[in-house]
Amino acid sequence: MTSSDETVLRPGAIAEVAQTVGVSYEGAASGPARVALVCAKFNGGITERLLDGALGGLKDLGVPLDTVAVAWVPGAVELPVAASRLLRSGDYDAVIALGAVIRGDTAHFDFVAGECAAGLQRVALDTGVPVIFGVLTTDTVAQATERAGPGKTNKGYEAAVTALEMVRLLEMLPRSTAETQRAGAL
């Protein structure tokens, strides 16, 4: 199942809210940013296509590809620790995690997908830096292949758009006192 017209945000909804409330924030998905990608080698025929999509999205949005870093990990469970190491370096504005977990006949799927998602969320919350979940969790290889197809519907491409939108949004949002003090010390 994919998004349908019934689930898409109505055109003009954000502008209407902005006219109603005191402050409305929305990040734009464009411009240069320091981005790292962490890509799982397991199900590599799918993840390579996700990576191609993410790189295409970053390029389309104005990120020079020679500034992008890619770290390869064995599988989806290893994505969070690599994302954490990259973000703790302070060198990146966002990390895009790419993987493919395809349901099999065992409970392995549930453990891998759940722990991967929880780990990536923890990294984002611990660092305050966007970690984008570009990990497919599908029932079949055919579903994964469809989501990693060419063009702007590639989930890697969508993850790149999300990463830049979140970088821009966080630049706009107020900082905590501690963040402001740290930024001033740099």
Which key phrases capture this entry?
single chain, alpha/beta, Rossmann fold, 4 strands, 48% helix
Q: Overview of this structure, please?
A:
By secondary structure, the chain is an alpha/beta fold. It has a domain at 41-168: Rossmann fold. The chain has seven helices and four strands. It has helices at 13-20, 44-60, 79-88, 108-127, 141-147, 155-172, 177-185, and strands at 35-40, 69-73, 94-102, 131-138. The model has no long low-confidence stretch (mean pLDDT 92).
Q: What's a concise summary of this model?
A:
Helix content is 48%, strand content 15%. The model has no long low-confidence stretch (mean pLDDT 92). The chain is an alpha/beta fold and 186 residues long.
The overall average pLDDT, rounded, is 92
Total of helices: 7
CATH superfamily of one domain: Lumazine/riboflavin synthase
Number of strands: 4
Q: Widest sheet: strand order?
A: 2-1-3-4
- Low-pLDDT stretches are none
CATH classification, class level of one domain:
Alpha Beta
SSE blueprint:
Elements: H1 13-20, E1 35-40, H2 44-60, E2 69-73, H3 79-88, E3 94-102, H4 108-127, E4 131-138, H5 141-147, H6 155-172, H7 177-185
Parallel strand pairs: 1-2, 1-3, 3-4
Helix pairs in contact: 2-6, 3-4
